[in-house]
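All the exercises in this workshop are built on plain-text protein records. A record pairs a protein's sequence with a compact description of its fold. Read left to right, the backbone structure tokens trace the chain's path through space. Once this layout is familiar, the rest of the handout is easier to follow. Here is such a record, shown just as it appears in the course material:
>
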Amino acid sequence: MAAAQPPVITPMTPFRTTLLLAVIFMVLGVYVYTIEVPTMERDVVQKTEAQRLLPFDYRDVTYLAYATRTERILMSRDERNRWRVLEPVEARGDAREIESVLRALEIGKVSRVIQENGQGEKATADQYGLQSPYVTIDLTTREYTESLALGNTGPLSSTLYAQRGSDQKILLTTLMVGDFRAKTLETFRLKDVLFFDRTRAERIQLQTPGQTITLQRAAGFHGPVSEWNFTSPVDAPADKTAVGILLMTLEDLTATNFIDSAAEKKALLTTLQTPSLTATVHTKQRGHHVAFFEPVVPGEEAYAVTSSNDPIYRIPAHVLQDLPRETFHLQDKRLFGMEMNELALLTVNTNDSQYTLIQQHEAWYLEGKETEPVDQQQANLFVSRLVDLPAELPVRETKDQPDQYGLKPPAIEVTGIDQKGRPRGHLALGTREKGLVYATGAGLPGIYQTRSLILGQIPAPETLLSQ
């Protein structure tokens, strides 16, 4: 019997090996992308959803009830995203404060579930401060209604125990106690007293018991500009910086507290009597009016009233003290009365010298020494200080009795002539007193005091020449 022949094993070619491996990897890839990846993504989504404290975007909330142990505040949002307080009073809502609470709830996550709804729930809720929570929040959207009770602080200061109304689960959350504690009705009320855009203001009226001040904004080719002018009690330019600060103060005026009830308002108005200042800012749409009253007791808060329908606002007393009440506070206080670019001749008279500067083609020359070069930087610095010199304190409304202040004759006198030969600029400096010097100028009526530093900034003619 012949011996059995061993089987013949045909070795795989490299091409067949590569092809087999490619098929295996393809099958594994199809499995991973069709089975494993969707499962992992679904697990991640489920885990993320399980960690979310609320199942909706905070911007979808239309009603919010915020209840503490002492008060319950109901708020609503309209279709234009404006918040309003509905209870316990009707008032504008502060969107920034309200939405900060809502954002904190949306960002908050569930760290772990302490207990499901079941036996011993009452004892457990009390253990975590949820039997009598310090805050209960009810939220409503078009699709959801949810409530959340906040209890004690967790193991870390940045955690809080909470209980959801929909499933009654007690949760350890990443909410921070500071985002919710110490919130009151005043927190959620809009504290702005006036509602206008200062860039659109066209006219301002200020009324004190002794004077009415009216300011009109200058009109430019493309609309209102930053320049303001008095229309009463004087016809003069206003200090645009001072007017800008006034408008900013009125626009940013905020209340520290509110008096809402009709009985309290009536009783307080009887005590307050006459306003110390009223201000009306006119825009193209309407006028925005506010009356200011001094504190009833010195050192306490002042009051602001806008209309009989609005509350009486309590405001810091210093705000009222800082508001301008006289023409001088809002006037352009520059004494000389001309701009640098308007000058053709500037004549300076002092006890030691007299000279005239000539301006031609934006360069300065010394009269009688036109061929000698003038230090242009020093000349420009001197003239700019001169034309921008402001009055610091009013002394007299008229220029009577100038000799009493050393102004007849003055110690220093400067005169400016414009390009048409008209003498328009003038400054006279008299007696120096405690860091100030008495002065008169073409820019303002009356006698004033200005900083005496200007006395040492008027150069001798020879120092103006280039070395």
Notes: The chain has ten helices and 25 strands.
